[in-house]
């Protein structure tokens, strides 16, 4: 399961109740600042899952061991950073993703939990920052040779956007919604969804179910998504 909770303690707490009730094996949450990650809003998740990691604005809770977690910088170029864009400890960097390895019974599953910047108008044109972040993510994932890999979260790219094909078919990843969802699967805005900005794209496994769940208490931005995959 995955959701961008928009830094809302009410929404995070509601999502934390929902995930174990839905028997989710892995829970990926975006837009969780450190103060919120350390608050009582995560109490149910912490109690329900034996493994979890929170870094930057991301949280991952899992029934299976988490082998490692590394931040992925999608928005800045830091002198001396490695070409894949992985940054271990750089609190000043605006991160865009978290790379996590979950030790599944079928073998390691690499997850890129992402929160791509919104497409906004700036000095360099509309969606320049968003498009640069997508391009950096594509480059990073293309260099990652993990046999089982998924990109999940708030991709901020609609399926009708040409950048979506860069993330999907360009990397050999399959969209869960395209493969196993019904209808458009809109996730944003929560009060009246008109576009799908949240998804899971993967290789080395087959999405067999993709569902958009109703808005949670306090939820006004993104709807949660629930995906079953066959590894």
Describe the structure.
The chain has 231 residues and is an alpha+beta fold. The chain is 21% helix and 32% strand. The protein has six helices and 15 strands. The chain has helices at residues 9-21, 34-37, 43-48, 128-142, 162-167, 176-180; strands at residues 2-4, 26-30, 51-55, 58-62, 66-72, 86-87, 97-104, 107-115, 121-122, 125-126, 149-154, 174-175, 198-203, 206-212, 225-230. Strands 6-5-7-8-11-13-12 form a seven-stranded mixed beta sheet. The longest helix has 15 residues, at 128-142. The chain is globular.
Task: Enumerate how many helices there are, as a single number.
Answer: 6
Taking pLDDT < 50 over at least 5 consecutive residues as the criterion, the unreliable ranges are 77-93
Helix/strand structural class? alpha+beta
Strand content: 25-35%
- Terminal-residue CA separation: 16 Å
- The share of residues in helices is 10-25%
**What's the average pLDDT?**
88
| Gyration radius, rounded | 16 Å
Query: Which oligomeric state applies?
Result: single chain
Quick tags:
single chain, alpha+beta, 7-stranded mixed beta sheet, globular, 231 residues
Topology, please?
Elements: E1 2-4, H1 9-21, E2 26-30, H2 34-37, H3 43-48, E3 51-55, E4 58-62, E5 66-72, E6 86-87, E7 97-104, E8 107-115, E9 121-122, E10 125-126, H4 128-142, E11 149-154, H5 162-167, E12 174-175, H6 176-180, E13 198-203, E14 206-212, E15 225-230
In short:
The chain has helices at 9-21, 34-37, 43-48, 128-142, 162-167, 176-180; strands spanning 2-4, 26-30, 51-55, 58-62, 66-72, 86-87, 97-104, 107-115, 121-122, 125-126, 149-154, 174-175, 198-203, 206-212, 225-230. The chain has 231 residues and is of the alpha+beta class.
């Amino acid at each position: 399961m995955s959701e961008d909770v928009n830094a809302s303690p009410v929404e995070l707490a509601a999502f934390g109740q929902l995930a174990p009730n839905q028997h989710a094996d892995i829970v990926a949450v975006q837009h969780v600042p450190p103060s919120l990650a350390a608050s009582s809003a995560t109490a149910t998740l912490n109690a329900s899952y034996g493994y979890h990691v929170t870094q930057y604005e991301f949280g991952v809770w899992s029934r299976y061991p988490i082998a490692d977690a590394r931040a992925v910088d999608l928005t800045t170029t830091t002198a001396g950073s490695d070409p894949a864009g992985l940054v271990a400890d750089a609190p000043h960097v605006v991160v865009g993703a978290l790379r996590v390895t979950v030790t599944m019974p079928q073998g390691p599953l690499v997850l890129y939990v992402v929160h791509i910047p919104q497409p906004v108008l700036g000095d360099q044109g509309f969606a320049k920052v968003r498009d640069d972040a997508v391009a950096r993510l594509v480059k990073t994932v293309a260099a990652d040779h993990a046999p089982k890999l998924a990109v999940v979260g708030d991709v901020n790219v609609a399926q009708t956007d040409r950048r979506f094909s860069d993330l999907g078919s360009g990397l050999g990843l399959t969209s869960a919604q395209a493969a196993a969802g019904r209808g458009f699967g809109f996730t944003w805005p929560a009060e009246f969804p008109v576009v799908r900005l949240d998804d899971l794209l993967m290789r080395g496994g087959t999405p067999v179910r993709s569902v958009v769940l109703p808005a949670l208490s306090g939820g006004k931005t993104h709807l949660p998504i629930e995906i079953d995959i066959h590894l």
